[in-house]
Each structure stands twice: as structure tokens, then as C-alpha cells.
Specification:
With 309 residues, the chain is of the alpha+beta class. It has helices at 7-27, 68-72, 163-169, 175-178, 200-209, 213-220; strands at 37-39, 52-54, 65-66, 82-85, 90-94, 99-101, 112-114, 120-126, 129-132, 140-141, 155-156, 173-174, 195-196, 247-248, 254-255, 259-267, 274-281, 289-297, 301-302, 307-308. It folds into 2 domains: 65-105; 130-308, no CATH class. The longest helix has 21 residues, at 7-27.
Length: 309
């Protein structure tokens, strides 16, 4: 069957062919050694800092457009990959860990947050909750043999007692330090503005949404063996990216290297020196389960995740 082309279609195809030809000619590198390319209507050379320089006062640049599901189906996206998300209506960039939004408006799961020390954190939406997708790392490191005090300085511990450990695992905080020496459940504490320390009930809401104690564990754990053991079955399908880090006990000893420990803002009403925590086990056997306790000492030090108000 003979195809009938309308005038606009011909013009569109002609323009596309011209663009392709320009890119191919420029990419051949015959004009200069570094293989820069410029696409414009005024014949100007590309900016010295750009490999590809697009210039127009009449048309824009149109990146690939796809839904969130189509975006998530991209295998091993390269750091710096850019798409337009037709669900969120925003340009998104893969930063090597998650897709981030550059829309200027906070969108949980694609926007990042910054704490008072300038540390930047990815975020993730799980059900109707918005969580930090990385362990909090605010504060000044003190030696594991010292005790944090109410001195208006946020004091953290770093496993294995080095500054580099906090870059890998985030900080570990005693309960009172985390709470800024208050006791109200769900307060901001040391979290960034607009965020708060999750209660045990908020943790339970997330675990239940992900399928319960056993099923949630692998969905919360980072995939692969960079941090977990060789038998890790974590999928990180929640994008929570839990990594193992021991807690520092009140006798200055590291315990349970192959688990991820998180304090909650809930305290034990029957034992005021104890508080609630959630932990994900990940022994070398690969067995995974989320656990909850209310009997760990407030003088222990654990990882912290914040949840959006």
C-alpha cells in the first residue's frame, strides 16, 4: 500500500534527518580534536566546556518520556541518566542510587534532603510514608569509650571508631542524644527540619505494608554482597537500602556486625532506661527477618532513619 505523507510530516522528517546528519558530521571529529558537536541555527561553535551544545530560541530539548514503571524497568541505569517521568511530570536524573527530581518541588522518592551539617540524603516513599533512604550522619564523632552528653553538640559514634566509618554506615546515636534529651514520641530530635524520629508504630506500619516480618526484610535490605554476607537474599525492592552495621553497647563493645539496628523514638513505659528498636538480621546463612524489641538500653548506640512529617 502506498503511504501518503502530509506536508507537516514531511517537514518533520526533513528536520529530523538534518539533525541526525549534523550530529553525525560533528561526531566524526573532523573539525577539532576533542570531537565537540554544536546544533544551532547561527553557526556558532560549541562552548569549550560542552561535548554537545544545543542552541535555539524556538525549540527545546526533548528527553525520553516514560512512566515510573518503565523507568524502573531500565536495567543498570548509568549514573547521570536523564528521563522525563510522565507520572511525576518532572525531569529525573539517576544519581547512582535512586532517581532524583530536579523540579524544585519536594517529591518523596526523587527529591533529596539536606541536614544542618550539609549531609545529603536520598528519600523513598513506602506506602503512605516518606522515609530517608540512608542512615542519618549528623553530628561530631566522639571516641567509642566516651559517653555523649547534653552539651548542645550532636555527638555520634562511627563503626569501627573512625571518621570513614560514618561515611559508609552513617552515625550511631545513644537514645537520649538522638532525642535531644526529650522523651516525647515522634519528635524531630536530630532529624532535619520537617522530619521526625519514627515511633515503633510507624516502623510497624512500614513492615506490615511490605508484607510482614519475614517478607519485609529482603525488601528493605540492600541487594548484593557489598555490605551483606554472601548469602544475602535482599532485593531492596522498597529502595530503603538497609545495610548492616553493629550497635555500640553501653559497655563500649560492638555487637552483631551482620545486622542492621535502628532506634525508634518509643521508650519502654515499664523500664524507663530502655527504648524500642527495629533490627534486620542478615547472618552469613542469608536468613532474613525484621525484629522489634523494647528492651535495649538507651545507652546503646544505633543507626537512625527519619520519616517525613
Amino acid at each position: 500500500m502506498k503511504r501518503i505523507y502530509n506536508t507537516n510530516e514531511k517537514k518533520g522528517q526533513t528536520f529530523v534527518l538534518r539533525i541526525i546528519m549534523i550530529v553525525l558530521i560533528a561526531a566524526c571529529g573532523v573539525s577539532n580534536a576533542i570531537g565537540q558537536a554544536g546544533i544551532n541555527t547561527d553557526g556558532s561553535a560549541p562552548d569549550p566546556s560542552a561535548m554537545l551544545d544545543l542552541k535555539s530560541t524556538e525549540m527545546g530539548f526533548l528527553p525520553p518520556r516514560m512512566t515510573k514503571a518503565q523507568r524502573n524497568a531500565i536495567e543498570a541505569p548509568a549514573e547521570g541518566l536523564v528521563i522525563y517521568n510522565t507520572d511525576s511530570k518532572a525531569i529525573e536524573l539517576f544519581n547512582g542510587q535512586i532517581w532524583t527530581s530536579n523540579s524544585g518541588e519536594f517529591k518523596c522518592g526523587t527529591s533529596q534532603i539536606t541536614d544542618i551539617d550539609g549531609n545529603v540524603y536520598n528519600t523513598v516513599i513506602i506506602g503512605e510514608q516518606c522515609w530517608m533512604a540512608e542512615n542519618l550522619n549528623r553530628g561530631t564523632r566522639i571516641d567509642m569509650l566516651l559517653s555523649s552528653t547534653d552539651n548542645e553538640i550532636v555527638e555520634k559514634y562511627c563503626y569501627p571508631n573512625t571518621d570513614e566509618g560514618c561515611l559508609e554506615n552513617g552515625g550511631l546515636y545513644k537514645w537520649n542524644e538522638m532525642m535531644e534529651y526529650q522523651t516525647d514520641e515522634g519528635i524531630q530530635g536530630i532529624c532535619p527540619s520537617g522530619w521526625h524520629l519514627p515511633s515503633s508504630d510507624e516502623w510497624l506500619t512500614m513492615v506490615n505494608y511490605l508484607g510482614g516480618w519475614v517478607e519485609a526484610a529482603n525488601k528493605l535490605k540492600e541487594a548484593g554482597t557489598q555490605h551483606w554476607g554472601a548469602g544475602n537474599q535482599g532485593t531492596n525492592s522498597s529502595y530503603f537500602t538497609a545495610i548492616p552495621c553493629p550497635f555500640l553497647s553501653n559497655n563500649a563493645m560492638w555487637y552483631n556486625l551482620y545486622n542492621a539496628w535502628f532506634f525508634t523514638s518509643s521508650e519502654n513505659s515499664l523500664h524507663p532506661l530502655e527504648a524500642g528498636n527495629y533490627w534486620i538480621n542478615g547472618e552469613e546463612t542469608g536468613a532474613s527477618e525484621v525484629h522489634s524489641n523494647m528492651d535495649y538500653q538507651k545507652n546503646d548506640a544505633m543507626s537512625v532513619r527519619c520519616v517525613h512529617d
